[in-house]
Design brief:
There is one protein chain. The protein has 406 residues and is of the alpha/beta class. It folds into 2 domains: 200 residues, Glycogen Phosphorylase B (Rossmann fold, 3-Layer(aba) Sandwich); 190 residues, Glycogen Phosphorylase B (Rossmann fold). Helices cover 44% and strands 13% of the residues. It contains 16 helices and 13 strands. Helix 4 links the parallel strand 4 and strand 5. It is globular.
Length: 406
C-alpha cells in the first residue's frame, strides 16, 4: 500500500503554526488502534525560511521545505498599490508558487492542510495545480486575506468559531464546517507549584496572585511600555511573568529597558517580577497553570489557549492587523464578559494598573470570566481536523491509520 503523505503549510505567527503542529501530532499518535503497528505518516511542512513555522517544525521533528513568500496588502488605494515593495513581494509570491510546485511534485502528498498566514498561499496554489485535496483552517472569527484567497481553491474549509459561517458566501458555506481551533498539548500539562519554584515567587510572594503579560512571540511594544512605566504600581497587587517578545530589532531595547526598571525596584518588588523574551513550549503549561490573569494581544493562538483553560484576560488588540482579526477575537470574549478589552490607542499605564487591580480584587468576577472563557472553546478540534485530513487523503478516520502502509 502506498505510504500516507501529508503536506502542511501556514505560519508567520504561533496562531497559524500551533494548530498545524497539533493536527500533525493527532494524526501521528492520537487514537491509533494499535500504536505498536502504527507506521508514522510522512509530513512535509512548507513555509518561510526565516519564519516562526520553520523553527517550530524543526523542534517538532517535522521535515521542512522553504518557499519564498511575499506579504499580501489590503486597504490601500488602487493608485498606491504600485510601489517597489509591492512589486518585489508580488514577484516573491510567484517564485514561491514555483518553489511549492517543485516540493509537491517531489513529495507527492495525498492532501494539503493549510492554516493561513501569507506563507500558506504558494502551497495552496501549487496543490490546486496538482489537484491535491486542500483543507483550509481559519483560526480567527473571519477569514484572513490569505485564507479568503485559499478558500476559493479549498476542497473543505474548517472554522474555529460558529458565528464565522455567517461571514462566508453561500458557495463557500457549502464546503465549510466548524471544528474549533486546536490547542497544543503542553498547555494542559502545567503545574502551578513547579512554576512558583521556577520563577522564585516564594516567601511572602507565594500568597500573591500572578499576572502573565504576553505580546506573543514578536512581543507588543505598547504593552511593554505601559508595563515599564507602571511596574512598581502593578507589583503592589501581584507577581508578574512578562514575555516581552523576541522580534528582531526590538528584543534588546525592550528587554534592556524592562531589566533596568527591575534593577531600580526594591528587593521585595524585584522578587515579584520575571521578564524574558520568550516563554518556551515546555514552560507555557506551567505559566498558564500559575497565572490568575492574562494580559496581552488577542492573537488567535493565545486567545484559543486562554479559552481552553478558562483564564480571565485583559486583551489589548493590535489594530489594525490584516483584517482586524485581533479586535474581532477580543470582541468575541467581550460579548460573553470573558475578558476586558482595552483598545491599543487607549492603553495608558494608569488604565492598565486600574484594570488589573479591579479584576484581581474581585474573585467572583474572575470565576465568571473563567466560565465564560471556556464557553468559547470547542474541544477535540485537533481530532476533528485530523479526521477531515485523513478523509480527504482517502483514509477511513474511524480506523485511524493503525498499520497503514504495512
Amino acid at each position: 500500500m502506498e505510504a500516507l503523505r501529508i503536506a502542511v503549510t501556514g505560519g508567520g505567527t504561533g496562531g497559524h503554526t500551533f494548530p498545524a503542529l497539533a493536527v500533525i501530532r493527532e494524526i501521528r499518535w492520537g487514537g491509533a488502534a494499535d500504536s505498536a503497528s502504527l507506521r508514522t505518516p510522512d509530513f512535509m511542512y512548507l513555509g518561510s525560511a526565516d519564519g516562526f513555522e520553520h523553527w517550530a517544525a524543526e523542534r517538532e521533528g517535522v521535515p521542512f521545505a522553504s518557499v519564498r513568500t511575499g506579504k499580501l496588502r489590503r486597504g490601500m488605494r488602487r493608485r498606491d498599490l504600485i510601489t517597489r515593495e509591492n512589486i518585489v513581494d508580488t514577484i516573491r509570491v510567484f517564485k514561491g508558487i514555483s518553489d511549492a510546485v517543485r516540493v509537491l511534485r517531489r513529495f507527492k502528498p495525498q492532501v494539503l492542510f493549510a492554516t493561513g498566514g501569507y506563507v500558506s498561499g504558494p502551497g495552496v496554489v501549487a496543490a490546486h495545480i496538482f489537484r491535491i485535496p486542500i483543507l483550509v483552517h481559519e483560526p480567527t472569527p473571519q477569514l484572513g486575506l490569505a485564507n479568503r484567497i485559499s478558500a476559493r481553491l479549498a476542497t473543505q474549509i474548517a472554522l474555529s468559531f460558529p458565528n464565522s459561517l455567517s461571514t462566508l458566501s453561500p458557495r463557500l458555506r457549502k464546503k465549510a464546517t466548524v471544528t474549533g481551533n486546536p490547542v497544543r498539548a503542553e498547555v494542559f500539562s502545567g503545574d502551578a507549584v513547579r512554576a512558583r519554584e521556577m520563577f522564585e515567587f516564594n516567601g511572602a510572594n507565594a500568597e500573591l496572585p500572578v499576572v502573565y503579560f504576553t505580546g506573543g512571540v514578536q512581543g507588543a511594544q505598547s504593552i511593554n511600555r505601559a508595563v515599564e512605566e507602571s511596574l512598581s504600581e502593578i507589583l503592589r497587587h501581584c507577581c508578574v511573568i512578562h514575555q516581552c517578545g523576541s522580534r528582531q530589532g526590538t528584543e534588546t531595547a525592550d528587554l534592556g529597558r524592562l531589566q533596568a526598571v527591575r534593577a531600580n525596584l526594591s528587593p521585595e518588588l524585584q522578587g515579584r517580577y520575571y521578564v524574558t523574551p520568550l516563554i518556551h513550549s515546555e514552560e507555557i503549561g506551567d505559566v498558564f497553570a500559575l497565572a490568575d490573569l492574562i494580559v496581552g494581544r488577542s492573537g488567535a493562538g493565545t486567545a484559543n489557549e486562554v479559552a481552553a483553560l478558562g483564564k480571565p484576560a485583559i486583551w489589548v488588540p493590535l489594530v489594525p492587523t490584516g483584517g482586524d482579526e485581533q479586535r474581532r477575537i477580543a470582541n468575541e470574549f467581550a460579548k460573553v464578559e470573558a475578558a476586558l478589552v482595552i483598545p491599543d490607542p487607549q492603553l495608558t499605564p494608569n488604565l492598565l494598573v486600574k484594570s488589573i487591580a479591579s479584576i484581581l480584587q474581585d474573585e467572583n468576577r474572575r470565576r465568571r470570566m473563567a466560565v465564560s472563557a471556556r464557553s468559547l472553546h470547542i474541544p477535540s478540534a485537533a481530532q476533528r481536523l485530523s479526521e477531515i485530513v485523513l478523509t480527504l487523503a482517502g483514509i477511513d478516520p474511524a480506523a485511524r491509520i493503525a498499520g497503514y502502509g504495512g
